[in-house]
Amino acid sequence: MHLPDSYVRTQKHAARPDWHLIEKKWRQIWNEQKIFESNPDPTKQKYLVTVAYPYPNSPQHIGHGRTYTLADAHARYKRMRGYNVLFPMGFHYTGTPILAMSRRLVSGDTELYNTFLNVYGVPSKAIESFNEPVNIARFFHQEIKQGMNEMGFSIDWRREFTTIDETFSKFISWQFNLLKKKGLIIQGSHPVGWCPRDQNPVSQHDTLGDIEPNFIEYTLVKFNLGDIYVLPVATLRPETIYGVTNLWINPHVKYVVAHVGEGNEPMWIISRDAVKKLEHQGHKVDIDHEIAGMELVGKYVNNPITQNKLPIYPASFVDPKGGSGLVMSVPAHAPYDFQALLDLKIGNSSVGLHISDIVKPITIIESEGNEGGNVVPSQIIIERLGIKDQHDPLLEKATTELYSHEFYKGRMKENTGKYAGMTVSEAKDLIRSELLQNGIGEILYEFVNKSVKCRCGEECVVKVLNDQWFLDYSNVQWKGLAHQCINGMDIVPDEIRSEFNYVVDWLKERACARKSGLGTRLPWDQEWIIESLSDSVIYTAYYIISRYFDGTDNKKTAENLTDSLFDYIFLGEGSLKEISERSKLSEEIIRNMRTEFTYFYPVDTRHSGRDLVPNHLTFFVFNHVAIFDKANWPIQIVVNGSVLMDGKKMSKSFGNIIPLRQAVKDHSADTIRVALLSSAELLQDADFSFEALRGIRSRLDDIHQMGLLLSSSNTNNLSLPEQLYNNRSVAEFEDRWILSVIQRRIRDTTELMERLRVREVLHTILYSMEQDLQWYNKRIKSKGRSETLVTKILTVFLETRIKLLAPFAPFMAAEVWSSIVGDATGTRANLVWPNSMEECIDPAAEETEDLIKNLIQDIQNILKVTKIKPTHIRIYTSASWKWKVYQIILELIITNRNSSLGDVMKVLGDNSEVSRARSDVKLIKKIMEDILSTTIDRRSLKLSTKKLDEPRTIEDAASLISSELGDENIGISVFSEDDEDAKRNDPQSKAKFSRPFKPAIYLV
Ligand SMILES: [Zn+2]
Q: How far away, in angstroms, is 949 Cα from ligand 1 center?
């Protein structure tokens, strides 16, 4: 058994493997062996991996592949570690997007038609059938499923379902009945994001660009203009009403005068955009006539609280789309207002109006640094930031800074009546209530997002819906449980935990039903259809029993699925006998379902994209804590970023959408998988490029080729690493080194894998291990070694690398592994994650190879600088006493984290063996530098290593050193400073410069 000469990186010339055939073969084998089908097994620990299921309204592009690939690599890793892993998949048909898409096609949208036809290669015949919305879902469902198989996802397809299956609808009815019973579904009037064209609430699933429609509550304060008119102004800071000095109006905008509400109240003057908003929010509005903004400039209104007379000033920054189209001015506390007044004063406003008597700021809040409130805080901050005019972007910063300072550290001044002395936050709520109670104020909701558009193209609004059904995410107790779950679970990466808690706090009542779309009807109010972000929150539990209702057994249909049956399976409630009678299912089947649920639940890990944190993932938590007992709350959530193509977002307009199946066809599944997971940390966006793909593919091809070569030279004698490690004949430095490195790589990748730091894992396997291999190859080649032991060691190395790669490149791993174990059918090809044998990590062995690498580099540097072409190189290793000095300083630095020269000198002085070293301060300083420039981990390793046998190590690598220097005839001699020999062979007294791990060099 000999190492084939051809093996050392000659594989470049080998023919590329046909990955399509290999992938096809393995898909078939996995399928036939049903290895991804998981059933309860009490002897094994279970692991339930789930990922947000796809919405089949278009095919998958590579961007969609990232989350699923990560979940699959995670599932495969856990399976290799001996877990009974269940990785199920379903398809989300619920909602209106499919309807909207069908409607666009029917109405002759050629852009959409061409995208389907040309970008995604959907046959025209299939597109014709898309006039029936459900056909869109059915078509892309199959397309996506096919793509998932081609990617090698290890899914248990027996559990597949769609959200419009009758049996699933029964499950959702149960969920909703239960939530209603618990008082978590309420009917009432609440604001929602709304598409006026579709007459439906909108959520992230329904908006262009997947924007979550967030809105915020303003107070609309009405300022009287005489007795006939009011000018309502929207504000987030009602407490500043005491500091209003004027109103702002846009002189170039046409306003309307309108009757709002019933009765003989004064008419409102508002922008035309505000009319629509008010109407959607429950106000009756009748427009009487138009009025130009300019006409109102210079008029006076009354402050409804202080009764002060306030002028109306012109300002082009007033946006008619914002609030009512009018703005109240609080210059003392709002930097924008202060600056606008300044600009007006110096004639800097866009309207060159002459205003002789400009108002003065009124300070109404005192705060830390402004005790008594005697200075105008806006002015101070504007001057400090050097703000130039009202268009200065720094005003935003000034506003935020001042607002948060006064909100947390401010108190109302004596000029605020009964609110004097209160904190700003207290006063804010009380003043708001006073305004609302006295009819001086109204509520107005506004989107936080600049623009929210429905998928149908319509601009969305905030609508106050009456008699709508809401999930009461405002419920304080419910929020408390959600926090408890989030704070008790693993969130990967942990930095995103605070974002979850933020969303929990911020969530309000959420409309959970629509009048149109696909999905399940509300069980108690059949007019309504449960919307897509509400029927997708606990379906992870349904996976566990879905295979019992896959349609193959006629006896079990939706009719059997009663609420009490679900209570029994998921909550362990009720009597088995009664439930069996009522559902007409046998006790045995019901008991099996319950057993299966208690075995597989809770969800061990839930994977999703980062964009689902503010909705789906948080709802997933909310609904789990509402429905299940604590033991069934999810254990982990993993969040990842999205995928860019050559640094750009993937989108139709950039023409850079790559369908996933096409990418697999062109580059192989393993390549795509590795590329998706290796280019970015979890939360970052992964940047995809064809160049990177080619690099990954050739790396995988190399590993595959090496596997085939080694397995052909090592047919049936599978080497056991344990034997190798115990074998004392492993005497060569490089053997001990690589065996140690293998164990360290296993340990490191396992630790990284547990935290799903897959980018680093792949970097270690593909690049660091490649360097390990190349170094080992150089060493054995320079010694002319090719004996059996080398082959065995290389096989262990390869086996390890293949195993570590298997979760990411499963096809290649299976192929190589089956050839190593000589099992083409793969029945024995069960890949197990390697356990690191920590005790076999040998720091001394790793230090010796490092010594040689560094030495070669040092010599190369000297040659480069001096341009000498040596015929001989003398290397001097340091004396034993220097090693003692080194160890003492090292220990001192490790204990103290750092040490001064004085400390070091003192300790050396206390030790008679090394006290003479104190005369060579230069040496001591150099040693300290050496140590401080190594990593902290490495320092402890060096401490445990003690003294290296440097002369032997270097002599062993002599032939490598000369060949690395490009001339095998260069002679290498090694002298230890301890030996008399060294002195005779040291004409330039170089030996004294040697330090531990840093021999001195003399070129002849
Ligand atoms: Zn719409």
A: 77
- Closest to 311 in 3D by CA, of 246, 244, 233: 246
* Distance, CA of 366 to CA of 364 (rounded, Å): 7
State the CB neighbour count (10 A cutoff) for residue 980. Answer: 8
Going from the Cα of 208 to the center of ligand 1, the distance in angstroms, rounded, reads 10
CA of 211 to the centre of ligand 1 (A): 14
Q: Six-digit token pair at 285?
A: 């509005």
* Token couple for 70: 């990560």
What is the pTM assigned to this prediction? Answer: 0.81
Element (H, E) at 711: helix 690-713
Of 579, 575, 573, 571, give the one whose Cα is nearest residue 627.
571
Check: CB of residue 364 under 8 Å from CB of residue 242: yes
Determine the distance separating the centroid of ligand 1 and the alpha carbon of 198, expressed in angstroms. 5
Measured distance CA(330)–CA(502) in Å, rounded: 30
Burial class (CB in 10 A: 0-12, 13-18, 19+), 979: middle
Ion ligand 1 residues within 5 Å by Cβ:
195, 197-198, 454, 456, 458
Q: How far is the CA of 131 from the centre of ligand 1 (A)?
A: 18
Paired sense of beta strands 441-447 and 215-225, if any: antiparallel
Ligand 1 centroid to residue 277 C-alpha, Å: 17
CA of residue 204 to ligand 1 center, whole Å: 12
Centroid of ligand 1 to alpha carbon of 466 (angstroms): 20
Q: Are strands 365-367 and 267-271 parallel, antiparallel or unpaired?
A: unpaired
How many of the other CB atoms lie within 10 Å of CB of 193? 26
The CA 100 to ligand 1 mean position distance, Å, reads 8
Let me know if 700 is exposed, middle or buried by CB neighbors in 10 A (0-12, 13-18, 19+).
Answer: buried
- Size of the chain, expressed as the number of residues it contains: 1004
The rounded average pLDDT for each run of 10 residues, N- to C-terminus, in the chain (1004 residues) is 46 69 94 94 97 91 92 97 97 86 87 86 91 93 96 97 94 98 93 88 83 89 93 95 95 94 85 93 92 93 93 90 94 93 72 63 91 89 91 91 90 93 92 91 89 88 90 97 98 95 93 89 94 95 90 68 95 95 91 97 96 94 98 97 83 75 94 94 88 92 87 56 66 90 96 96 96 95 88 89 96 89 67 87 89 94 89 93 92 84 85 83 91 88 86 92 89 90 85 93 90
- DSSP state for residue 866 in the 8-state scheme: H
Ligand 1 centroid – CA 359 distance (Å): 46
Q: Dihedral of the CA atoms 692, 696, 701, 704 (nearest 10)?
A: 180
456 alpha carbon to ligand 1 midpoint, in Å? 4
How many angstroms is it from 252 CA to the middle of ligand 1?
A: 31
